Amino acid sequence: MELADEIRINAPKDVVYAALNDPEVLKQCIPGCEELIKHSDTQLEAKVVLKVGPVKAKFSGDVELNTEGAPDAFSLSGQGNGGAAGHAKGGADVTLTADGDETILRYEAKAVIGGKLAQLGSRLIQSTAKKLAAKFFKSFATVVSEESVS
């Protein structure tokens, strides 16, 4: 499964990059996130509850950041386990481009799922993933824009 999109955020690039590295901001924005622990500058652990069609699962997972191109670009990869519901692993490449006082965030993500979730059908999984990504980035843009103003 692949996802790609771009979003315009009403905040300077350095503010957006800092927010993408702030566990408190991310926890507010990740749909279903119950816990987000930063173990180091490049390693995070998350606990997320998601409902995909008839399957509801609590995922526990690890995310690793690669910040070599930061603050213009970075990538992340991770994997999560939802017990009987299944598992997922994937990654994303993110680029940040300054546009005046705003920032354009572009991402390309890939994910592979297994278990009960994989049996639901690719259209349901794809549409749910798009909705979750859109919800995250809309929330993220709102939080970052508000923090940038205050």
TrEMBL record:
SUPFAM superfamilies: Bet v1-like. CDD domains: CoxG (cd05018). This is Carbon monoxide dehydrogenase. It comes from Actibacterium pelagium. The lineage of its organism: Bacteria, Pseudomonadati, Pseudomonadota, Alphaproteobacteria, Rhodobacterales.
